Amino acid sequence: xxxxxxxxxxxxxxxxITGNMMVKVKVEGDTIVEARTxxxxxxxxxxxxxxxxxxxxxxxxxxxxxxxxxxxxxxxYARAVEMLEGRQVPERAKYIRVLMLELxxxxxxxxxxxxxxxxxxxxxxxxxSVGDRNYILDLFEELTGGRVYHMYIWPGGVRRDLPEGFADxxxxxxxxxxxxxxxxxxLMFENTIxxxxxQGVGVIPKEKAVEWGVVGPVLRGCxxxxxxxxxxxxxxxxKLDFEVPTAEGGDIWARALVRRQEIRQSIRIIRxxxxxxxxxxxxxxxxxxxxxxxxxxxxxARTEATRGEVGMYIVxxxxxxxxxxxxxxxxxxxAVSLLExxxxxxxxxxxxxxxxxxxxxxPEIER
Amino acid sequence: MSFFDLxxxxxxxxxxxxxxxxxxTISYPKESKEAADRYRGLHYNNxxxxxxCGNCSTICQNxxxxxxxxxxxxxxxxxxxxRPRVDNGRCCWCALCVEVCPTGSLSLTKDYIFVSENPDxxxxxxxxxNPGGKENISFYSTKEISLNDFQxxxxxxxxxKERVKSFAEVVLGYNEEQAxxxxxxxxxxxxCTEVCPDHMHIPEYINAIASxxxxxxxxxxxxxxxxxxxxxxxxxxxxxxxxxxxxxxxAVAIRWLKRYATExxxxxxxxxxxxxxxxxxxxxxxxxxxxxxxxxxTAAYYLALRGYDVTIYEANAKAGGxxxxxxxxxxxxxxSLDKQIDYIQSIGVKIHFNTKVGKDISFKEIYDKYDxxxxxxxxxxxxxxxxxxxxxxxxxxxxxxxxxINSGEKVDIGDKVVVVGGGNVAIDAARVSRRLGAxxxxxxxxxxxxxxxxxxxxxxxxxxxxxxVPQGIPVKIHKDENGRVKAVEYLKAxxxxxxxxxxxxxxxIEGSNTIIEATAVMAAIGQMGDYSFLPEEFTEKIxxxxxxxxxxxxxxxxxxxxxxxxxxxxxxxxxxxxxxxxFRACKAIDEMLSKK
Lengths: 367, 596
Known about the structure:
The complex is a heterodimer. By secondary structure, chain A is an alpha+beta fold. Chain A is about 45% helix and about 15% strand. In chain A, a hairpin with a 2-residue loop joins β2 and β3 (about 30-40). The mean pLDDT of chain A is about 90. In chain B, α9 (about 230-235) crosses α11, α12 (about 270-275) packs across α15 (about 335-345) and α13 (about 295-305) packs parallel to α21 (about 575-595). The interface of A and B includes residues 49, 56, 163, 186 and 190 of A.
């Protein structure tokens, strides 16, 4: 006998939802029979706002697309502008950008540790990882002047060179994390509760993953090796030695394993970057921003973020402002259409865990 | 995996080993967290360095910065007198304001905590409300980092050795690409507009050039200047002195950009086509103008556009006044002037050449014939040197020398010329003499850096091999047996501080007499007016004080019907001031006559 379905509204204000959005689920007992996502609480019309700002002013909006990991958005925009204009970026700047992007990846994953475990009631882990993330934020603060909104990677290079002694500080921080990550494993991956709550939960079928437009660590958690850093290398990723980890299963557990490995790969990349970074210019200065016009045309640049591919498409009519910009983020695919599919058949208590495992970022969905 | 997994149950308990470890966090306010050396915190503004250009306010897209008057800071030349006020409730600390600040006065500090119950308290005037911020500056922009373009696009010029061979124009002008690049440096602050005597719409026409609309630029320029190509070549450009970019770099080449724009209109006809001026129906009123110099031409052009019947009386064979006869042709070629005069005539301005008022026609006749009279008579005479031997053959006034050369006459200057003075006329006379094949020495009372001449002119003269002798005061001109100049004797001078706080004064050193051989001596120590054309019945009303007409702010003399402008009125004695006078007079005449 079918039980009568009940409708539950989860969000938009809910600690398990990483931002402001709502998931409307129909449940029979504890089991979800239908899920609908509802967004619209965070729309700030960034793409429209960019049209009335000049090419430089646009750049200060970008970090707000996704607060936990703003740098890939800045990177995509900067690279799209550079493509369109044919502006060269100094080699050193490319290394500094990779350093930023990988630090941002670590910072974002550390926040994810907190969210993923918090959604399962394992709060200690979150306090540790978010505390440790502050060491990354300290590095950001020293390099860029801001802890969260860095506004650092801009067209032509980066805003400032590394401060004195910064490289050593980065290496010391990496040493710390290499030791520290062991503690995380004990608390999280070795933990029976975590294992039981994540294995076989939120499964994305491997054969459907590509069709559904899944990207980034979520796709790699389905056993498919795909990473823009390897497939379509930008900056200096082709000169660096690193692996792209995958895991089989397509469940929360597999995605967690991928992220666990990626943090280690990031540390590996950062060490190489510090070692190989050449001396020289860090910035190929743009002209006076008020009169800086880009040639007519369009460009798309994409960057591998912790959520997957984030890309910026810009159209110029030859003036000092974008005619149109469009941002392509992974969160939209993962947390709207994909989430609606894979929630069906899951338990209500796992909604938050599944959302966290998909790298849900509502501010990025809406922009 | 069994339901009960011993390892998986015990491993998390290893977290207990963290007990007693130092926490990551700090306990504020017991401990304070110092921000990083590059932290982007609250603003600080160095009020002395700031010139109130407002570029910070323009770049800010949060509308967090507005420019306001604050007590104790007055606007002056090159300073709008405004200072930025930051709304810390809107600011997002992106620091673009810092990156674009041309002076480098604005910066962000390490301070990041500010608490108040009153929302108005979050409106800050950096530097006034947080004077202590100076000690905490963390995010700032140096000249190297700044987003301002401090380097000017170099102007192509003839080589010094080539130049002295002919009177060919020295400055070659920007090409399109160079002009766009140079125009793109402008930040449109408008501080230049304020000091331009004519208040030309500088940021607007530079914007037009930067965005590729040269025709727009020409139209904007003709809005209040009918002789822009002249200004584009020889203007004294006070605008560039105050350019915000010049506080840490090279000023935007405003003059060269104007030159570029006007040169895109190659002939008078094309100019007419581009400017496409609206000429009003004749209103039946007449204006007589004495002197076809910059002020007279300007008044004539704008009055003609407003429907007046305008007639100019010019003593010389060509129009342009001092810009025709005083400025050498390598700076301002005659075709360039002719083009502009042709255009002005094409809209209906009548010019009677070779008609000297006071000789060929009386002032009274003009006064009676027209509804209003404008006098732009200039300073046609030059001061003599006034030293012993001044009367020798070959001793002359530089201004007169330039007049004769520009009129196509021959002047015998021999092969060794000494020019006395440090202004533009001195430099012009020296460079012309070089082109006539003479060795030239400029003798100037003060130091080279004190010379009132344009620095580009001084450099140009040096490139062409002119020898500058600073701190030299001429005392005697030696003659040979035929009464010709043989040598110039001068005293060396030392600079002594001025008691009244002015610039240092030269003091002759006794017994330092030095002699330079010379075949000609040119005095370039100033010009004066000639007002003999005015009958006595008029000089009662039209007052002349210290060699100049006395006028009110509308360029009106004591006789309400008579207006005056140009060198015979204002002390700055440059073309752009004359143009401004003419424009002001036009508005006043229009106002007066349209009331009748």
